[in-house]
Amino acid sequence: QVQLQESGPGLVKPPETLSLTCAVSGYSISRGYYWGWIRKPPGKGLEWIGSGHGSGSTYYNPSLKSRATISVDTSKNQFSLKLSSVTAADTAVYYCARHGEGTCDYWGQGTLVTVSS
Amino acid sequence: QSALTQPRSVSGSPGQSVAISCTGTSSDVGAYNYVSWYQQHPGKAPKLMIYDVTKRPSGVPDRFFGSKSGNTASLTISGLQAEDEADYYCCSYAGTYTWIFGGGTKLTVL
């Protein structure tokens, strides 16, 4: 059974950098699929942030590309998100997920990150 | 990259059918058969209900049906049950390794 678990600080001060890690078990991320970050701000819908691939390639939402960095560590079977220069608008529940072109089939439970001084 | 357009809310009585639309463009929904639908209950992670426009993962009841026409995809839920009350999101591949979600639809079972 594939499982994903997000971890990282729940409070980040503006304009610092938000850092999250997603640990994957039950599947080797080097085998394939995309490994993505998705967030849900309070009262708003889901937003795809970006994804990494076991090959090392990374892909980003154009609206966040300048601030987001995703890295994939196949040796630890985990992937990470860094989002720089955060503001209150980046407050959200952040999810990691495994996905293909047409599906996100496994999700982490989500972690709330609040941006506040 | 604008969010796919979904109605903010839909409602139906138990046993009835409801449809949720998801409108994109010829660059995303209309271009690829890579539309998926997710059910999200409060405080829970999204759950995959439909993928590749029409396919149901194992364990999802056949009351959930996905379709697409042109730039609009739809999720139809028949035989509404109380546990179907949730937020529903569509997602589409938008080319060049980017994905886009809809704004979400709140389904109320009356």
N-to-C SSE series of chain A?
Answer: EEEEEEEEEEE
> Can you give the helix content of chain A as a percent range?
under 10%
Number of E-state strands of chain B: 9
User: Ends of chain A: how far apart?
Assistant: 39 Å
Separate helix tally of chain A: 0
What portion of residues of chain A belong to β-strands? Answer: over 45%
State mean pLDDT of chain A (0 to 100 scale).
Answer: 95
Estimate the global geometry of chain B from the Cα principal axes.
Answer: globular
Uncertain segments of chain A? none
As an assembly, this protein is heterodimer
Report the radius of gyration of chain A as a whole number of Å.
Answer: 13 Å
Q: What class would the helix/strand composition of chain B place it in? A: mainly beta
Shape of chain A: globular
Number of helices of chain B: 0
Mean pLDDT of chain B, nearest integer?
96
Report helical residue fraction of chain B. under 10%
Low-confidence stretches of chain B: none
Instruction: Please give the number of β-strands of chain A.
Output: 11
Strand content of chain B: 35-45%
Q: Could you tell me the radius of gyration of chain B in angstroms?
A: 13 Å
Quick recap of the structure?
The complex is a heterodimer of chains A (117) and B (110). Chain A is mainly beta.
Describe this structure in words.
The complex is a heterodimer of chains A (117) and B (110). Chain A has 117 residues and is an all-beta fold. Chain A has no helices and 11 strands. In chain A, strand 9 and strand 10 form a beta hairpin. Chain B is mainly beta and 110 residues long. Chain B is 0% helix and 44% strand. Chain B has no helices and 9 strands. The interface between A and B is medium-sized, with 26 and 28 residues.
Question: Main attributes?
Answer:
heterodimer, A: 117 residues, mainly beta, seven-stranded mixed β-sheet, four-stranded antiparallel β-sheet, 0% helix, globular, B: 110 residues, six-stranded mixed β-sheet, 44% strand
Which helices and strands occur, and which strands form pairs?
The complex is a heterodimer of chains A (117) and B (110).
Chain A lengths: L2 E5 L3 E2 L5 E8 L8 E7 L6 E7 L4 E3 L7 E6 L4 E6 L8 E8 L4 E4 L3 E5 L2
Parallel strand pairs in A: 2-11
Antiparallel strand pairs in A: 1-3, 3-8, 4-5, 4-9, 5-6, 7-8, 9-10, 9-11
Chain B lengths: L8 E4 L5 E6 L11 E6 L6 E4 L13 E6 L2 E6 L8 E8 L5 E3 L3 E5 L1
Parallel strand pairs in B: 1-9
Antiparallel strand pairs in B: 2-6, 3-4, 3-7, 5-6, 7-8, 7-9
